[in-house]
């Protein structure tokens, strides 16, 4: 399985931007980078995905390094509702078979 | 509401029993999945069905048998339950047929917490 490395935890203050890093040094050319998040006691929720170019949607932005070996999920203004575990997934050639790692536990302080 | 739903939400049972968890999606999706999240919070795929056909079977004991009566339903039957089966089981669905170069966002249900005593 393709591996990603994320910090175990990060902390942010409400209404401040949050940058969640992810390393995926073994990524191959056709692998998507997916981000999901899991709020407490809920199922995972899709956040964003990308291949080579930076991506924006209503939830977040995804900045992908030029060599694609790392990416950063950006939450522009963190809210208390963004407190969750964020998973960065490199699905290793299978864009439907997601393998979740430990993720980053994001704490948002009021 | 359009969503992925699972029943029951909680299931407590004795070792050795047989139990089923049901999943339904009314999103019109072609593909459905079962995931298991263990006590350490690792989330692993177990099965995937595309239009009632088994696509992924990830080294799961054969005590676990998924059944898809139609493409909107994927149920999980577990025989001879063991203590190690205690976990949260998530059902998910995605819109398109599985293909290497297509992107499939997955929509997850709320989970079923199974406790085996």
How do you describe this structure in short?
The complex is a heterodimer of chains A (110) and B (117). Chain A is mainly beta. Chain A contains no helices and 9 strands.
Alpha carbon gyration radius of chain B: 14 Å
Oligomer state equals heterodimer
Which class best fits the helix and strand makeup of chain A? mainly beta
- Count every beta strand of chain B, where a strand is a DSSP E run of 2 or more residues: 11
Low-confidence regions of chain B: none
Overall residue-averaged pLDDT value of chain A: 91
Q: Biggest sheet of chain B: strands, sense, closure?
A: 7 strands, mixed
Q: Strand order within the widest sheet of chain A?
A: 1-9-8-3-4
Q: What proportion of the residues of chain A is helical, as a percent range?
A: under 10%
Q: Please state roughly what percent of the residues of chain A sit in beta strands, choosing from under 5%, 5-15%, 15-25%, 25-35%, 35-45% or over 45%.
A: 35-45%
Measured distance between first and last alpha carbons of chain B = 34 Å
Give the CA-based shape of chain B.
globular
Coarse structural class of chain B: mainly beta
SSE pattern of chain B: EEEEEEEEEEE
Main sheet record of chain A: 5 strands, mixed
The share of residues in helices of chain B is under 10%
Radius of gyration of chain A: 13 Å
């Amino acid at each position: 399985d393709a591996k990603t490395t994320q910090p175990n935890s990060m902390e942010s203050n409400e209404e401040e931007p949050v940058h969640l890093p992810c390393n995926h040094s073994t990524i191959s050319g056709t692998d998507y980078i997916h981000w999901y998040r899991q709020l407490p006691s809920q199922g995972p929720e899709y956040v964003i995905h990308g291949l080579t170019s930076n991506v924006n949607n209503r939830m977040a932005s995804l900045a992908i390094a030029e060599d694609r070996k790392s990416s950063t999920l950006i939450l522009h203004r963190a809210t208390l509702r963004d407190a969750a575990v964020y998973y960065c997934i490199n699905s290793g050639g299978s864009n439907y078979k997601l393998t979740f790692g430990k993720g980053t536990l994001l704490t948002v302080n009021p | 509401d359009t969503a992925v739903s699972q029943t029951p939400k909680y299931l407590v049972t004795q070792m050795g029993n047989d139990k089923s968890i049901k999943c339904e999606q009314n999103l019109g999706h072609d593909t459905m999945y079962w995931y298991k999240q263990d006590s350490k919070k690792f989330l692993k795929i177990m099965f995937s069905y595309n239009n009632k056909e088994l696509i992924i079977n990830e080294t799961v004991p054969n005590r676990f048998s998924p059944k898809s009566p139609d493409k909107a339903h994927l149920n999980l039957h577990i025989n001879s339950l063991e203590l190690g089966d205690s976990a949260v089981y998530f059902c998910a669905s995605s819109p398109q047929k599985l293909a290497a170069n297509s992107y499939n966002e997955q929509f997850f249900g709320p989970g079923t917490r199974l406790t085996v005593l």
